[in-house]
Structures are given as C-alpha cells and as structure tokens.
C-alpha cells in the first residue's frame, strides 16, 4: 500500500489513466490540506491509512470521469469555499473577474440580483467583498431556473451569513426591479461541444451551459426584459462566450440604444464581459 504522497500520486495516475494529472493533483492536495507549492515540496509526506483509503475512493471516481469538485463536494471562488453537487454549475475562475468589475460599481443601498445563481458563488463573493469595502444597506436576490441550484445556493448563503431572497425564474420573468443585475448565463453553442472537456459534458447541468442554437438565447430574452427590471440608472454585468462579442454589440445597439455599453476582456485577453448602464 502506498505510504508517501509520491507513491500515492504514481498509483493514482495508474488507476485513473484517463483523468487529467492536474485533476488528480488537485484532489490529492485538497484532501491533504496542501497548497500547490506545499504539494510539490512535500512529496515524501507519509499518509495515514485513512488518507490512503480516502484518496483511493476519490481516484476511482476520477477514473469514472466525475469532476474533482463534485468528488470533494466543494469548489473555490474568489477565496470562498462553496458547496457544489451534481446539477449545479462548478464556479469558473473567469467569473471572478466579473464580480470584481461589478464591485467597482456597487453602491450603498443597491438592490442586487444574481441571475442564474447556480451555487450562489457570485452573491457570496459580492456580498462578502462589499462588506470589506464598508458598503451598507445592500439587498440581495438570487434566481435560477432549476430547484437544485437554489437549494445548494441557500446552504452557501447560510454558511456565509448572507441574507438573500431566492426565486425560481426563467431569465427575468416574474422578478422585481433592481439597481444591479449580474449573471454568468448559459452561452455555449452546441457546435462547441467537440472542444469541451468531456467531464464538463458528462457532469454539469446542460441548462447552465448551452445557450440555444447560437449561444445567444439568454441575451435576446434579457435585452427585451431588462428595462422592466432595472431602476433608473440601473446597471448590469454579464459574462459571455469569447466568440460572441460582435453579435452582442449588434444586439444591444438594436435593443438597448439608451444604455451605455462597455465590453471587457478577461485576463487571458479574450472578450468575456459586458457592462450596461441605463441612461435614465
């Protein structure tokens, strides 16, 4: 039986030969409570029998193609540990940049909607970071089209002591008015399946990934509904697929001519986020 981290790492790679090495290393490091640098430096660390048994269980799941975050039962987002489970989108690092941009525009007493909340990662990060900035009087709402994400998000809100009103809704229908709307909606085109990680396709909810035939179904509905759900001077922040900027520029120019629209690239230099402000 493997006794050192190095031995376990080798065995895990053999047991889950189709799994990415990064995923194996991530699960091992998280189970052992090691940072990435500690993980590399402590390859001679001796594992207990219980740790070996746990890692063996985890690796068997990796071998079946289960996502690391679903195996662990949590994901990290902007430094916050959030519960995730099947039926809930795993938070993406790119979305952290969307939250940081929204924070620049968040004001005291804003009424905020996290549209398509998933695990609640955006609301948790936004609320906790707003607290650090000393913002007050904020009211948070979170909506999703499915029940499973709402249940998970409510657990995460409770864990972090964030007071959030949750609603089941398809885009904005049936919701109230807000000062700021933020969303990482479904935007992947079916034609992009062939370049996606198989574990994403096998594990994560399709309704949180795919945005209709051209990936823009959500944005068309949003653009037609948003005026009825924003207060005067209201703002929105949306993530989108890197190939969709030109189409969204045309859509918003047509549907939202009275909005100030700004696009922004992510850290990888890809078009990823859009900000809109109602000039009313």
UniProtKB/TrEMBL annotation:
It catalyses: L-glutaminyl-[peptide chain release factor] + S-adenosyl-L-methionine = N(5)-methyl-L-glutaminyl-[peptide chain release factor] + S-adenosyl-L-homocysteine + H(+). The keyword S-adenosyl-L-methionine applies. GO terms for biological process: methylation. It comes from the Bacteria. Residues 21-73 form the Release factor glutamine methyltransferase N-terminal domain. Residues 103-193 form the Methyltransferase small domain. GO terms for molecular function: nucleic acid binding; peptide chain release factor N(5)-glutamine methyltransferase activity. Keywords: Methyltransferase, S-adenosyl-L-methionine, Transferase. It is an enzyme of class 2 (transferase). Signal peptide: none annotated. InterPro entries: DNA_methylase_N6_adenine_CS (IPR002052), HemK-like (IPR004556), N5-glutamine_MTase (IPR050320), PrmC_N (IPR040758), RF_methyltr_PrmC (IPR019874), SAM-dependent_MTases_sf (IPR029063), Small_mtfrase_dom (IPR007848). CDD domains: AdoMet_MTases (cd02440). Pfam families: MTS (PF05175), PrmC_N (PF17827). The keyword Lipid metabolism does not apply. Its EC number is 2.1.1.297. PANTHER family: HEMK METHYLTRANSFERASE, MTRF1L RELEASE FACTOR GLUTAMINE METHYLTRANSFERASE. NCBIfam families: hemK_fam, RF_mod_PrmC. This is peptide chain release factor N(5)-glutamine methyltransferase. It comes from Lactobacillus porci. The gene is prmC.
């Amino acid at each position: 039986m493997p006794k050192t981290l190095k031995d376990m790492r080798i065995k895990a790679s053999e047991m889950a030969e189709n799994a990415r090495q990064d995923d194996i290393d991530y699960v091992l490091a998280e189970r052992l409570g090691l940072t990435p640098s500690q993980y590399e430096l402590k390859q001679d660390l001796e594992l207990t029998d219980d740790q070996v048994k746990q890692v063996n269980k985890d690796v068997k799941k990796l071998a079946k193609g289960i996502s690391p975050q679903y195996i662990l039962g949590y994901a990290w987002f902007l430094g916050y540990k959030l519960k995730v489970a099947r039926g809930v989108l795993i938070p993406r690092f790119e979305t952290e940049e969307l939250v940081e941009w929204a924070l620049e525009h968040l004001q005291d007493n804003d009424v905020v909607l996290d549209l398509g909340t998933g695990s609640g990662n955006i609301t948790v990060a936004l609320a906790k970071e707003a607290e650090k900035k000393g913002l007050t009087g904020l009211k948070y709402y979170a909506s999703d089209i499915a029940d499973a994400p709402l249940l998970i998000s409510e657990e995460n809100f409770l864990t972090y002591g964030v007071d959030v009103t949750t609603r089941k809704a398809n885009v904005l229908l049936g919701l109230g008015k807000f000062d700021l709307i933020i969303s990482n909606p479904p935007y992947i085109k079916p034609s992009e399946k062939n370049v996606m990680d198989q574990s994403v396709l096998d594990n994560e909810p399709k309704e949180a990934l795919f945005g209709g035939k051209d990936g823009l179904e959500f944005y068309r509905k949003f653009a037609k509904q948003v005026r009825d759900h924003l207060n005067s001077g209201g703002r929105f922040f949306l993530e989108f697929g890197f190939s969709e900027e030109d189409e969204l520029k045309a859509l918003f120019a047509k549907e939202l001519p009275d909005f100030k629209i700004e696009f922004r690239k992510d850290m990888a230099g890809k078009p990823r986020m859009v900000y809109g402000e109602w000039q009313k």
